[in-house]
Amino acid sequence: MKLYHDPFSAPARAVRCFLLDEGIAFDEQVIDLMSGDHLAEGYDAVNPNRQVPVLVDGAFRLTESATILKYLADKYQSPTYPHDLMARARINETMDWFNTGFLFNFAYCLVYTSILPEFTTMSVVSRSDIEHMGAVKSRRYLEVLDRHMLAGHDYLCGNDITIADYHGASLANMGTAVDFDFSRYPNVTAWLARMADRPGWEPSFAAFNGFVAAMRAEPERMKALLAAHP
Predict the structure, then answer these.
(1) Per-residue pLDDT tens over the stretch 65-116
(2) Do 106 and 199 share a domain, yes or no?
(3) Domain check: are 37 and 139 in the same one?
(4) Which domain holds residue 27?
(5) What is the pLDDT at residue 230?
């Protein structure tokens, strides 16, 4: 089994963290998005979308992180994706919730506008409008996450961790790249801290955390570096 990933990809971090937590043996190959490895000749044969993660299991290949998590949990009979129909439906619903409005507003409109070249080269006015929309709508999603989805229990779907937590936490954690203030969402803050205590979290998130620290220390240099890469 082989995982193609980049430590700066939130979906890839979720899969790698799950693999490490579950003790699943895998080979890995880093696809450096900053250097344009995903655009290199031949990578489209691995993933025609030229994205990460990609899981290759023999002759079988998957290219979407949420599906990869479901596949791995099923293959290795992980309790993080129980077979009970209603429990599984709740997990699927939660992962879809993160993949739709939350991902668009929090990731694309609020976080990526500050760190990805295709946004940082936009006019200040256009970027500001997108960020404002993302901030307003992200607050609504985070209120739902805090006051409903995480209210009264430790994880998204109850008191036991599920693959939805790996998926959702990796996306929510992107807020650290823009110093997003989670303090008004105590249940979200506690949940992210709980996930950060997982054994696979630190090795999966260390490079990203180092990047965030470098951005904070030298924001202008890091913006110039990002803009110089595809």
Answers:
(1) 999 999 999 999 999 999 999 999 999 999 999 999 999 999 988 888 776 6
(2) yes
(3) no
(4) 2-75
(5) 42
Distance of alpha carbon 211 from alpha carbon 125, whole angstroms: 27
User: Can you tell me which residue has the tokens 């992980």?
Assistant: 78
Residues 113, 161, single domain; the answer is yes
Peptide linkage before 186 cis (omega within 30 of 0): no
pLDDT in tens, 187-214: 999 999 999 999 999 999 999 998 888 7
Same domain (yes/no): 68, 106: no
Looking up residue 192, the CATH number of its domain turns out to be: 1.20.1050.10
Alpha helices in the chain (DSSP H): 10-22, 43-46, 65-75, 85-97, 112-115, 117-120, 124-144, 163-172, 186-196, 201-217, 219-227
Q: Where are the alpha helices (DSSP H) in 33-144?
A: 43-46, 65-75, 85-97, 112-115, 117-120, 124-144
Q: In terms of domains, do 59 and 152 share one?
A: no
Confidence at residue 121, expressed as pLDDT on a 0 to 100 scale: 63
- Examine the domain organization and report whether 91 and 181 are in the same domain: yes
pLDDT tops 60 at residue 229:
no
- The pLDDT confidence band at residue 220, using thresholds 50, 70 and 90, is low
What is the Cα Rg of the chain in Å? 18
pLDDT at 132 over 80: yes
Contact 95, 162 (CB under 8 A): no
Looking at the fold, whether 60 and 103 belong to one and the same domain comes out as no
Please state the domain count of the chain: 2
CA-based nearest residue to 167, from 195, 130, 129: 195
One domain for residues 118 and 140: yes
CB 187 within 8 A of CB 142: no
